[in-house]
Design a protein that fits this description.
Shape: globular
Number of domains: 1
Order of helices and strands: HEEHEHEHEHEEEHE
Strand content: 15-25%
Strand order of the largest sheet: 2-1-5-4-3-6-7
CATH architecture: 3-Layer(aba) Sandwich
Number of strands: 9
Helix content: 25-40%
CATH topology: Glutaredoxin
CATH class: Alpha Beta
Distance between the termini: 35 Å
Oligomer: single chain
Number of helices: 6
Structural class: alpha+beta
């Protein structure tokens, strides 16, 4: 048995770190806050997917999601899919969406198993993945990273054949990084 298999066995098959860029994105099959099914495989047929894993009580998630919503308003529903993957129940997740103005779909990762979160090796939230249409992780960001989000917005612009719009507005005080 290799060391990798030994370590994997010790942690019941759970990843020990967040999946990096270049890896295949694990399947996501979850329901949204209204019970509607979502399959990553189906969404990728339309174009790239941005998947953001979060918890409603995470201050860095609360800081990050309005910027993700801004990106969604610019590039979403145009061959580019945005999803949030909540580690909370549907009620708390709907309240989070309302409080922080999130209009893109929010999926529920079962609080008992966190199956999707475990497949992606989520150790900190927010963890944001840009998944190419071929199912490969193009970029990932853990915590809030201004440059990572700008890079993801540029990819969204390329994918949707729209001009690159500034994600951060002049005068906004936005740190380069905020740990999750």
């Amino acid at each position: 048995m290799s060391l990798k298999n030994t370590v994997r066995g010790l942690f019941c098959g759970k990843r020990l770190s967040t999946l990096p860029a270049g890896e295949p994105a694990p399947a996501i099959s979850l329901k949204d806050t209204n019970g509607q099914s979502f399959l990553l495989e189906e969404a990728l047929k339309k174009g790239p997917v941005l998947a953001a894993f979060f918890k409603v009580n995470c201050p860095t998630c609360q800081f990050t999601f309005p910027f993700l919503e801004r990106m969604y308003e610019t590039y979403g529903n145009n061959g580019f899919t945005f999803i949030g993957v909540s580690q909370n129940d549907p009620t708390d997740t709907r309240e989070f969406a309302q409080e922080f103005g999130v209009k893109f779909p929010l999926l529920i990762d079962d609080e008992n198993s966190f199956a999707a979160s475990n497949e992606y090796g989520i150790t900190n939230v927010p963890s944001v993945f840009l998944i190419s249409q071929d199912g490969t992780i193009l970029e990932r960001s853990v915590g809030f990273a201004k440059q990572d989000l700008e890079n993801m917005a540029k990819e969204a612009a390329l994918s949707t054949k729209r001009p690159v719009a500034p994600l951060f507005r002049p005068g906004e005080v936005v740190p380069s990084h905020k740990p999750g």
